[in-house]
Amino acid sequence: MPSAQPPLVGMAEQFTGLPMGDLIGAPLMAAAKANSAMAATQTKFLLDTCFAKEETSDGKENYKPVLIKMTLTRGVLVPVDPDKPEQEPKIEQVETTFDLPLLTVLPLNSLAVDDVSIGFDMEVKSSFSESTNEKTEEALSAKSSFSTKVGYGVFSAEVTGSVSYDSSSSSSHDTHYEKSNSAQYSVKVHAGQIQLPKGVTTIITAFTNSISPIEMPTAA
Amino acid sequence: MLTQINCPNCQSPIPIDLKGLVGGESFHCKCCQAKLSLSEDSTDVVSSAVTSFEKVAQQAKG
Ligand SMILES: [Zn+2]
Fold this sequence. Notes:
The structure holds two protein chains of two kinds. Chain A is of the alpha+beta class. Chain A has helices at about 10-15, 20-50, 200-210, and strands at about 50-55, 60-65, 65-80, 90-100, 115-150, 155-190. In chain A, the strands form three sheets. A two-stranded antiparallel ribbon of chain A has the order 1-2. In chain A, strands 3-4 form a two-stranded antiparallel sheet. The termini of chain A are far apart. In chain A, about 5% of the residues are buried. Chain B is of the alpha+beta class. Chain B has two helices and four strands, in the order ββαββα. Classes of the chains: A alpha+beta, B alpha+beta. Bound molecules: zinc ion.
């Protein structure tokens, strides 16, 4: 185990230099600017295309919504013979024409910058590693000889022999110390488009409600 | 160019392709089967509005 290890860097310090405000703020600001420019374009388009400007008798400008004519065809159940209500009714196709403000059919909110996503990953890694490699090689060769005399009474014998020992050992030892601290930051900023302003939707709803077809009273 | 108009009969939203509408296409309400189309008198108005709208939308993208 190594005795003195280099110190690991502090994660927080690594991020202090990063211009986070710019990284996140700049794209958002660009999107906001684009959106506000688009709002102005939208308004101009709305007034130029969807409204007809007319001057009132007292010299004031008046914007009147441009109306388009729509045709609605729907099936209406009518009795085959009004005198015989027990009979199966038949479906009659009834055509209704109604006026619709042009601005209600144009997908105005699709003009805005609807989605801003800023995403980036930051990773700071601090680590050190140390490898130790130990190799031991041992070659041992031992030779010893012995001679001993063994006596068996009157006989004597001499025994000679040899012992040999040959050994080779090799061991490899790897130690890998790794110490690391790392920080990974995933930054995701999302700005979405909100619906049309309440005022605009109220106007559209008011228009829509006022143009709901009214059924003509059927002749008795 | 997709938009939607609430069915005047049952208030369900009817998805409408504006170009198709200008071209004389009819759109059906999935809920009550009512058929919605543009009257011929208004074809020119909607057609020029769609053209201007596309210009503005192009501007928005670029
Ligand atoms: Zn319907």
